[in-house]
Amino acid sequence: MWFLLTILLLLSNGLTEGGVTSTYVRKAAPSVEIPKECFPRPPGYNAPEQVHITQGDYTGTSIIVSWVTPLKEQPKLVTYWEADDKKGITRVRARSRTTTYRYYNYSSEYIHHATIRRLKYNTKYMYELGKGNGTRQFWFTTPPESGPDVPYTFGIIGDLGQTQASNQTLEHYLASGKGQTVLFVGDFSYADVHPFHDNEKWDTFGRFIEKSSAYEPWIYCAGNHELDLAPEIGEQVLFKPYKHRYHVPFRASQSTSPLWYSIKRASAHIIVLSSYSAYAIYTPQYRWLKQELPKVNRSETPWLIVLMHSPMYNSNNYHYMEGETMRVVFEPWFVKYKVDLVFAGHVHSYERSERVSNIQYNITEGVSCPVKDPSAPVYLTVGDGGNIEGIADSFIEHQPSYSAFREASFGHALLEIKNRTHAFYTWHRNQDSMAVSGDSIWFYNRYWFPKEETSSNTLT
Ligand SMILES: [Fe+2]
User: Where is the Calcineurin-like phosphoesterase domain (predicted)?
Assistant: First the structure.
């Protein structure tokens, strides 16, 4: 009887057919890290390096500029001016807060974080760090003021590391020229896979990503490789290198931890969660998310996007069900508040889900399977940056009904928000030219236009 009922339920929810598993065969390439000497310091005395920027407040009028100086703390200043002011007459300065840390036998150099405030929206700024022959110049563009139909394009990258494949991913993303901000879904340097968590790998990673991170904000989300827990060598402070090196504006969204926070940027409200911090009821992260979600104003920021590291829906044998506990806790809210998209990493391949939910599950009833749900997010796993651990090429057979498309290739994604109703999403495998997308779909906003979407895939 129960068996028959289960079959009927499966048939009625329209999810009996699995999605597409790409047969694309990617050329085997060893996931060897690029040697440290290939990431040299910039020339000049005490030249600032590892420059990265992120949004510095809730609304996008501040930027946090972070950099490292190797020899001495001074100068601690970032000088900035509007790019239209060609002579830089109206130069303004902001002072950094400097920190250092020790990790086993490693001592960090001087890590600076300076917040530049009260910037104009939609304006290109130049900024300068260092002094004398170590002076370096960069630029960034502030986002447009939030509004329901403001177009904006995000790149999505995860599990990057510092291999040749990582470099292909970043170069491929940069070649598109479309991305305005990177949503980074965790697992940065992979320093922790080396003896004693060789923290010089955090330095080389900072130099590696600078070609992007100094010019456009990366929105940071912590992964398991940021934990750096090593009690065997006396290192018991979780996220120590990460928290020293990557600052986020968590207080601006009333968060009590840099590991979970939110920002508004153009037409998107972005919520960053921590898969490796407590999230059960009564915990700080749970309480924060509960009070944050009702604040989202879909008339101002129609697109509600969540970043986390461990995916809630994943049909790869790698890390299978690791996101299940967070799913049980947070999924009902994602559906209630009509989250549009949830981006995760962790699994080193690509996967896109159907709009499904599994919130009707009740342990006393016992029937549990995801069903199509127009209020549910699409879950996207983009842990395919290309790191030292290699590709996750072991998908579960056969493909479950919640999985729309999956492929074991390295790549990145782009989300081009057009207005309050439409966003064009593409996923790009590294082997293709930028004009080719391995997976593409027009996403329809869940609040303003909750219609069913159709996708297209290129399998070869
Ligand atoms: Fe991970």
Answer: 153-350
Give the residue with greater pLDDT, 175 vs 15. 175
Residue among 39, 310, 306 at smallest CA distance from 161: 39
Helices (H), 262-377: 284-292, 324-336
pLDDT at 8: 39
Backbone dihedral region for residue 448 (phi beyond 0: left; psi -120 to 50: alpha; all else: beta)? alpha
Mean pLDDT of 305-315: 98
Of 182, 202, 198, the closest CA to residue 242 belongs to 202
Given a contact cutoff of 8 angstroms between Cβ atoms, the answer to whether 130 and 136 are in contact is: yes
Q: Does the structure show a pLDDT above 80 at 333?
A: yes
319 has catalytic annotation: yes
CA of 155 to the centre of ligand 1 (A): 19
Whether residue 194 has a cis bond before it, omega within 30° of 0:
no
Average pLDDT, stretch 154-165?
Answer: 97
The number of CA neighbours under 13 Å toward the Cβ of 390 is 9
Q: How far is the CA of 221 from the centre of ligand 1 (A)?
A: 11
Q: What are phi and psi of 9, to 5 degrees?
A: -60, -45
Are the CB atoms for 113 and 66 separated by under 8 Å? yes
The residue from 52, 112, 172, 319 that is catalytic is: 319
299-319 burial, b for 16+ CB within 10 Å, e for fewer?
eebbbbbbbbbbbbbbbbebb
Distance 223 CA to ligand 1 centre (A): 5
Ligand 1 mean position, distance from CA 334 (Å): 22
In angstroms, what is the span from residue 349 Cα to ligand 1's centroid?
12
Q: Would you call 173 helix, strand, or coil by DSSP?
A: helix
Q: Is the peptide bond before 75 cis (omega within 30 degrees of 0)?
A: yes
What span, in angstroms and rounded, lies between the C-alpha atoms of 142 and 417?
Answer: 17
For residue 19, report the phi and psi dihedrals to the nearest 5 degrees. Answer: -90, -145
pLDDT score for 17:
56
pLDDT digits (tens, 9 = 90+) for 40-56: 999 999 999 999 999 99
**Both tokens assigned to 127:** 């900024």
Nearest to 108 by CA among 242, 211, 271: 242
Q: What is the mean pLDDT of residues 145-160?
A: 98
Predicted confidence (pLDDT) per residue in 43-91, tens digit: 999 999 999 999 999 999 999 999 999 999 999 999 999 999 887 788 9
CB atoms within 10 A of CB 38: 12
pLDDT at 25 over 90: no
For residue 44, give the DSSP letter.
Answer: S
Q: How far is the first Cα of the chain from the last one, in angstroms, to the nearest whole number?
A: 44
What DSSP line would sit under 73-122, residue for residue?
Answer: S---EEEEEETTSTT-TT-EEEEPEEE--EETTEE--EEEEEEE-SPPTT
pLDDT value of position 387:
92
